[in-house]
Model the fold of this input.
Amino acid sequence: MEEAVREFSRLPGIGNRSALRMVLHLLKENEQDVERFGETIKRLRREIRYCRQCHTICENELCSICSDSRRDSSLLCVVEDVRDVIAIENTAQYKGLYHVLGGIISPIEGIGPADLKIDSLLDRLGKQEAKEVIMALSTTMEGDTTVFYLYKKITQQYGEGTIRFTTIARGIAVGDELEFADEATLGRSIVNRTLYESTFAK
Done:
């Protein structure tokens, strides 16, 4: 029982008390339900993978979004993680493709550019012939730092003005996490995105 509590407490946001409550709940369940729960977790780890192109989760080499010929491949929306893809898709306002960075630059947490999917993003921009890159990162200091870093890398590699570089409109309040924004606000931010260069102080 102590071992089970220890394993549950390894999950993000789960302390020892919550882990103990989960373990006690499982002990009350019938054996078949607990076995099904355990088998589902094993299947999750065994069968779910990351899309080789955009790095979101999927069951095949390419996710359903990347393999959909109806999506606009000239638009590329850069997000922090899979939860942001889900949040934007729920708005039904965006019809382009995505690129999941797998995080944002955060020196405090020891996350640098080399820890993110930046090289594959730069590679995609050339192969995909993207006309616009939409930065849909959380409006925190770390998010803004990441956007500025990517702006410099993209303009250095492809030239300024070659690829339209936009950020989502500030309908998302500064400091807000994208996944907690309501769908109407998030959808409006995508539709009313702005040129990144226009945010520079003159």
Q: What stands out?
A: The mean pLDDT is 89. The radius of gyration is 20 Å. The CA atoms of residues 68 and 97 lie 9 Å apart. Helices lie at 2-8, 16-28, 31-47, 82-89, 118-128, 141-158, 183-191.
